[in-house]
Amino acid sequence: MEQLVFLGTGDAMGVPRVYCDCQVCEEARAGGLNRRYRSSVSVESEEGSFLIDCGPDWRESMERRGQRFAGTVLVTHPHFDHIGGLPEWADACRWLERKGRIYAPKEVLDAINRQYPWLERNLDFHPMDEGISLAGWRISGWKVNHGKNGYSYAYRLEKKGYVWAYCPDSIALPPEQRLLLNGLDLLVLGTSFYHELAEFSTRSVYDVKEALELLRELKPKQTIFTHMSHDIDLRQDYALPDGVRYAVTGMNVPLAAI
Question: What is the pTM of this model?
Fold first, then answer.
């Protein structure tokens, strides 16, 4: 069965925030619905599996699933909340005497190598600027605007007539960066706040209101919002349109036409 598993659905700080005693953080602290680890997903099928991103909660995610090894990781960008688990992954590869495979555009791999120059002892680095195939999925990546935080990459994945995209860190995408987000069966999009009031120049990820405007143009068949801060309370009814929902930690989503 083709499926997408949400290992983490949180933004860079995760939920709960250590310093915060808001209702969302307190509910999350008690192990509630709003408990969110840094954003990561597992793409799984009979042809294989791979992770997208490997943040600092990678070990916790693996332990929750009872999973002892991950062979392949596709990375969106070299920010800590998306690569902070790479040293632990590489150490697991070392102890298991199995070489991991990490895929990303060359500039992302170069940035990772500068931060963690020892990873190549246990991980094989594979540039994928021209696209790749993993677990039978044809994958194309392109650079997207990440606001004050620079850039990220989004990925479009196609297999057996099903097309979906993963874009956890983006904001104010210009027309040319929205092209590959058309014609999707599923869009996984990052939305850190419902309505973010911070000055736009200081922001880096869509809020829900902006994302809903974007969806009116893109018209994916289904959309899942991820990369959420403690502003989003999954116990509330946000009256999202049909076909739009929030990701929940551990949620499984079929990747096939219904």
Answer: 0.97
Pairing of strands 244-246, 186-190: unpaired
Provide the Cα torsion 166, 172, 177, 179; round to 10°: 80
Tell me, what amino acid is at 166?
A: Y
Whether the predicted pLDDT of 164 surpasses 60: yes
- Predicted confidence band of residue 31 (pLDDT cuts 50, 70, 90): very high
153: Cβ–Cβ under 8 A, 6 or more apart, which residues?
76, 77, 104, 105, 108, 141, 142, 143, 144
Of the candidates 168, 235, 158, 244, the residue with the CA atom closest to the CA atom of residue 209:
244
pLDDT tens digits, 194-210: 999 999 999 999 999 99
Select from 256, 257, 247, 167 the least CA-distant residue to 215: 167
